[in-house]
Amino acid sequence: MTLAAALSACSGGSDAPGSTGGGSGGSGDGAAPAVPAPAIKISPATGSAKVRPDKTVVVTAANGALEEVTVQAGGETLEGEFDATRTKWTSKQPLKPSSRYTVSAKATGQGGPATATSRFTTLKPKVGLEVVDVTPGIKGETVGVGMPIMVRFNAPVQDKAAVEQALEVDAEKPVKGAWRWIDDKFVIYRTAKYWPAHQKVKFTAHLTGVKAGQDTYGVEDHSTTIKIGAAWISSVSTRTHMMVVRRDGKVVKTMKISAGKATTREYTTTSGVHLTMERGNPVTMISPGKKEGDPGYYKEVVNHAVRISNSGEYVHGAPWSVGSQGRANVSHGCINAHPSDAKWFYDNFHRGDVVKIVGTDRALEWNNGWGFWQMPFSKWQKGSALEA
């Protein structure tokens, strides 16, 4: 009887004080099932090798929310973002090739905190893409408002859209612009209108991890800050034989000039929008395609020469033609000026300043030197890999 009474007392179930309400599958004493700790999953999994740099790092949490995710390699942290519920974290940028990554994650939930770690390595690409030259890129240089940004790579780019997407131009005074691919290693950025004067422009190539082609990945970023100076714009008329120089719209110099005599095409000054490219003092000029003794051969040493095309055109001093300057065109195609005027121009010019020439029947080709402004912007944009 005593045993039976004891069994009867234990069978009260849902009527006993502190009961959970008669749930099934519980422990014999009526306690609630244990809540599991958060389960964290990381991809790539620990130990993974030769992971592609364009692989996305993904961290997820079940039974809880992610509190913190850190992905690092070589002291650099990979950026990423959580979803709205903080149960998923996704990287936002490519991985760096030939690197060892460590992923650390923390999560919290009703079942308590949890941590997880993954270590993996990225592959070494057969071809590592990097920027080998940016023009302009001389430290401390001030350039003109017509200056393009010219970028050369060390290897051919197959996926031009992916690489172009990684090229950023950030101007203090933004203006519309576009990239145009000249060949597989060379791309140029030109604005639709001249740069607004007096500002800084930062160019950044976010190349690290970008897949540029088969077995080709960007291996490092590149950044250059460009200083745009005053708007120096020179207007040349081969008909009036005059050159007017304006700085920020104000006339600062008027010069008598003599242009190409136009007896042949090569002696005809090109009309169009030129950019100043480089300078020399002195520069030796030799007739193209001729040797000493040939008719029309010349070899002249000129002072204070500023190049405006690749077809041999300069603005330079010409003491021998002072009598023709302002009156007649007698040069081999250059813009001849009085020695003092040429020196002034030489001393004041910047690469990328604008020289507009009118009055001849020979147009400057868009790819003659830096004649990029000769191409309409609507056509220029079509050279972009991102244009539809």
Automatic annotation (TrEMBL):
Residues 19-29 have a biased composition (Gly residues). Pfam families: Big_10, YkuD. Residues 232-358 form the L,D-TPase catalytic domain. The active site is at residues 316, 334. Keywords: Acyltransferase, Cell shape, Cell wall biogenesis/degradation, Peptidoglycan synthesis, Transferase. SUPFAM superfamilies: L,D-transpeptidase catalytic domain-like (SSF141523). InterPro entries: Big_10 (IPR041280), LD-transpeptidase (IPR050979), LD_TPept_cat_dom (IPR005490), Transpep_catalytic_dom (IPR038063). Residues 1-32 are annotated as: Disordered. Residues 1-18 have a biased composition (Low complexity). This is Ig-like domain-containing protein. It comes from Microbispora maris.
